[in-house]
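task queued by scheduler; priority normal; single chain, no ligands, no partner chains; default sampling; output format set to structure tokens
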Amino acid sequence: MSEKIPNQESLVLAERIETAKSALADFMKLKPEEAVLFLHDDGTDPETLNILKSAASQIGSTIVEIDLRKRKNKIASEEFENKAIIDLSEDENDFTSEIYEKIKETKSRMASLGDLGPEVFERDGPMSEKLEDLQYRLDKMESVLKEAVGFKITSVYGTNLEVPLRQAHERQWYKDAGVIEKGKWDNLPGGEIFTTPDQEKVRGTLVLPILESEISPQQGVDEFVRLEIRDGLIISIQGGKSAEKLQKYLARDVKDEIKEQKQEFKENGELKEKGKSRNPGNIYRIAEIAFGANSKARNVSDPKKSYRKKGVSVVEAEKKLGTMHLAFGDSRHDEEGTEGNSAVVPHHDFVVPRNGLTVEMFVREDDFEKSSNGRKIISEGGLNFF
């Protein structure tokens, strides 16, 4: 009897499962005796779910699932205890804040993959990036960035932005290779280094050729979206239909934040977060500056293609080596030395593509103010960190 030859589809699936196994072992330190809890909803890609379930099963883990769309009651702490958690839910839901609290309370750990598709597990995909390579690049990047007092960012799309950091190196840079420790959660794939800039002093123009996938599944824009930023706040959003979509999305975030804070005050008689600004308007405030370090991550949508075409998930694209991203909203990063003072629920990342990007770094305050003696760590898309 002749041996059955596996078809191309079977070979691709087997390769993806092997990549997922390596990623779970490297970044989650998954052990055969552990149970893995999968969180999913209607937006979860079934192929991605099956790949990760197969990988965890082959490692020897027990599989547990919670469908968040069908769940009515609260999640009990014991459901999280002694488990590695993989969150594949795509939509914000009533359990989001509850899940994060349970992670800390039970000292479990969680990898969030959001709207990533099965292609991230390709042999040369972003989940195949080796941990030691990421750590090497991030160490080299930190050795450069830790001297910075500010950045001037320009792009061929029209970005012209000044991003000062806090004086006297008050904040630190965090190297996020994607390794997830107990009591923590993180996005996968890994590969970025970030901090919070001076939240009251960022100024200039940020031009976006793409929107975050959570805001617009078809991430390209009909016209470049132009954000005017003063004193760290977005004061205007200009462009076409994509700009209108962003305006409406952020306005809805503000309404939801007000509702959430009212409910929190009603239940507790106070707002729980101490020492942080709870102003809903902080949804428009700068919250993060970050640089990608994953050489296998894909670029964001090509602005030359139809803006209706679905692009690469921002969870992946923001990790692309040579790109950078800026975030607005919540600046509670849960990493010592990186946190800002804005405590709101939303946190939106906007990727600045590598094509035509220039980032000039300054190590002296007077040089930053005069735009002199800077170092171009990214020069018209060319990477000069190393």
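post-processing summary
- The two ends are 57 Å apart (CA to CA).
- The first strand starts at residue 35 and ends at 40.
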